[in-house]
Every structure is written in C-alpha cells, then in structure tokens.
TrEMBL record:
It comes from the Bacteria. One of its GO terms (biological process) is fatty acid metabolic process. Residues 439-515 form the AMP-binding enzyme C-terminal domain. Keywords: Ligase. It comes from Amycolatopsis acidicola. This is AMP-binding protein. Coiled coil: none annotated. Pfam families: AMP-binding, AMP-binding_C. Belongs to the ATP-dependent AMP-binding enzyme family. InterPro entries: AMP-bd_C, AMP-bd_C_sf, AMP-binding_CS, AMP-dep_synth/lig_dom, ANL_N_sf. The keyword Nucleotidyltransferase does not apply. Residues 25-387 form the AMP-dependent synthetase/ligase domain. Signal peptide: none annotated.
Amino acid sequence: MQESLWHKDESVPLVDHTVGSLLAARAGEHADAPALVGNAYRDGSQRRLTYGELYAEARQVARALLRLAEPGEFVALWAQNIVEWPIIQYGAALAGVYLVALNPVLRKNDLSYALNHSESVVLVHADRSREYDMASVVASVRDECPKLRHVISLSDWDSWLDSGDEHEPLSDCDTDSPVMLQYTSGTTGKPKGVLLRHRSLVNVAKLTMDTAEVQPGAVTVNPLPMFHTAACVIGTLGPLWLGGCEILIERFEPSAVLDVLRTERADVLFYVPTVLGSLIETAKKTGEPAPRLTTVMGGAAKVPRPMIEAAETLFGASVHNLFGQTELAPVLTMTRRGDTRDDQVNTVGRPLPQVDCKIIDPATGQIQPLGVRGEICARGYQQLVEYLHDPDATARTVDAEGWVHTGDLGSMDERGMITLGGRIKDLIIRGGENIAPAEIEACLLNHEAVAEVSVIAVPDDKWGETVGAIVRLRDRPRPGLRDELDAVCRARLAAYKIPQHWLFADELPTTPTGKVQKFKLVDAVMRGALTQLP
C-alpha cells in the first residue's frame, strides 16, 4: 500500500433491512425485552416500552400519518428529545413517508425555510421546549408554507394515535428508498437538505455497533440531539440492531445523566466532547463511585488525550472516536478496541467495513501518497441520495464514479488510519502558503490551560490572511499565557503557521452537535467582540 487508497473490507456483510422491517424483526424476537425509555411530552413522566409495545405504537403512528400524507411525501418533526421522537421516526419509516428532522431551537425564518424547502405536507410539533413557545412560532409560519396541509401538536398525542385506520396497509418500501431528510448543521451558512436511505441508516448503525464490539441487549444512554444523525441513527438504530434498550435523555445535566448511567446499569454512552468532558468533571467532584460502562463512543471534534484517559479510568470503558458527516449517515471511520493511545488521540481510526476511502489532491483529483494531506473521499452504502432540490451541489459532492467528496482534509497511513486536517474551506492562505487550522489546534490542546481552541483566518492587507487563535481556558487568563502558547507553537510549527492574533472566549459558538462555527468567530473578531490574551 503506497498510495492513500483503502479498499473496502467485504468480510462483514451488509443487511437487507428497512428501518421498519428491522423494528418488526426485533419485536418478533424480543417482544417483552426493554426497547426505549424516555420522557413523555405531555406531562414529563417516564415511559418504558418493550419491543412489542414500541412496534405497536409505531404502527399506530404510521397509520395516523397515512391519513394525512402519501408514501413518498415529507413529514416534518419539530421537537426536543422526548420519547415520542423515536416512535415517530419508526412510524414514519413504516408509513413510507420521509421524516424531516428539525432542530427544536429553530427561529421563525429557519423553520419556514425548512418546511418550504422540504415541501413538508405534515408538521408534528411540540408546543414548548423549555421557555421557547414553539406553538406560537408554528402559528406564525403556517400561512407562509403553502404545501403544509396538516399541523399536529404533540399535546394531542393520544387522540392523534387513535385517528388512524387499524386496517390501513403499511408501506412495503425497499431498502434503497429514502427515509429521512437531515439539514446540515450550518458551520458555513445556509443548510442543505441531505436525503438519506433506509439501507444507509440501518447498516451504519449495525456496523458501528459491531465494530465497537457492543454486545447484544446492551443498555445505551443517548443524550445527543435527536434531530441529528448521531442520535437518531447511531443512538437509536444502534441499540435497535442489538435488540438493546435506548435511554433517551431529554435535557443534558451532568449529575442527572451520571445517575441514569448508574440506575439503568448502562453499557454504552454516546457523546460529543463537551458532554463527555462535563460528565468527567462532575464525576470527579462528587466523590461517588463513577458508573461502570463498556463503551463510550462519539466524535464531532478532536478528543484530547486527558479526556480519553479520564473516561477509561473513571468509567472503565473503551473509548471510540468516530468521524463522518451527515452525507455519510453519519459514520465513515472509527477507532477500535486495542488501538494505541496515540492512535486514539491523533487519528479517527479506519473506515467501517464495506466502504472505499481515498485521500486526493483537491486541485488535481489525484490520489495522494501515504501520509500526505488531501481531501477525504468515500464510496459505499452510507452515502446520501442527494441534496434535495440542489442538483448542482449534489454533482459537486458526488462525482461520476460515485465518490463522496467530504470537504474534510486528512492523511492516511499504511494501516488505513486517518488523521484529520480540518476543512478545505477552513484553510488559511497566508501569502500563498496553505495552513491547516487543525494542525495548530492540535498543538495548542497540548497546553494544560487550554480547554478548547479554534484557529481561523483573519483578513490582512499585507498577507491576505493571517492566523488567529481563539481559546477557551480552563481557568481565568493569567499574565504571560500568550507567550506560553506562542512558545508551544514555535517549538512544533513552522514560523508562518504561528498565530498572530491571540484571543479568548468564555464559550466557542457551536452547532448542536458540537462543531465549532468558525464563521461566527471570524465575525466576532472583525467586530472586536473578543478579548486579547494577556
């Protein structure tokens, strides 16, 4: 292996299931086994459903939906992490409609855009999430959405379930049929609608669980936002594949989640680094024995060495770092049990089975030699159907040979291990030199004072762009810290890569899945809204 090309591992088979047929199979095999635990929308009470109960209620949802929509139409779901969310997800799959997963914090303009862009004919919504009056927002946008025929409040859950015809036949779609529309997180601006198929979601969930060696019947805790693929695919369909139980967390509060991990005797925790970091800090402060887990898996940002070591020590778990994107449903690579600590910290592991992967020169399209950074491309079962109503964007992302161009930079070694190098669009071009922010961020995370860091391009009259580093500190800034960080960089990086701008922020703006929104940081720097490091 001399070039950065990974040929798919075909030793692990794909499965031929839709989301609905997999649920039906598990209900037939494990009717009385626990399947789902979560808070009901109406009164916040906890509901615990077996596979038999979950399948029965999902079929009620399917038949209620089929009174309002035809198979192949779009149905939007706008709600927080409540137990009804995965039930509706399963019901939509059984009905053959395409679920549009919406962020519960969307404001009026964004909600209107998503409903119109997707041409949703039904909206199922919560009336309120925390202090947010979602019902009023729905009322204000309804007249702006000409395709929207029906609006269903989750306050009417019981009566809506009873509205379906129990004799209505359910859709018999195939595994290549679309099942879900996901809007990209928006780290660069306007979201695109990513259409995903049954086959992709089921097999990504299966292969992620199998690669992590999670055992059948595992109890999994899912605190991630359900409108994102990490939660509704890995966090929901993952335990479904295993015949396990999903514990859905409505609101993330570290002490409460630690209690859930203990009382439910959980095996698996899904995380983004901010979630995992908060749980570790809280567990250390309480003085109580930390819950024991077998597996901790997640991603969205680089996981520092101390966090991985603390998770393994406190929870006794194997930590798996996942990499992917919505367009890949959403996992491409992951670290395995037995990987070295350096591989856990510095790489995102090897590709999942049944997927080809390569690193190319973004300018020429040629495959890069091993160890040379380029654009990560993938081809396999998990890739998107299309960007809805955007054939040009689809053609730019999926080439004529079926390769998905991720827009992420990385390099590959002889084992197929991928080391990330940031986003192509994040590249800083200083006087003609290309600088990858991820390299500088990885360097700065080695300093004990740095909790998080984001490196951005700052416009400059002389150089075109210069390097700016925005850090979130573990403690208050102290005199001389800027010089310390500068010295860390100078010891490891070429001179042209050293940040010229050093600023700190109490929080870095992120998407709900933990990805830093660099365009917001650039705007804050240009407005002078951030404070210089001393």
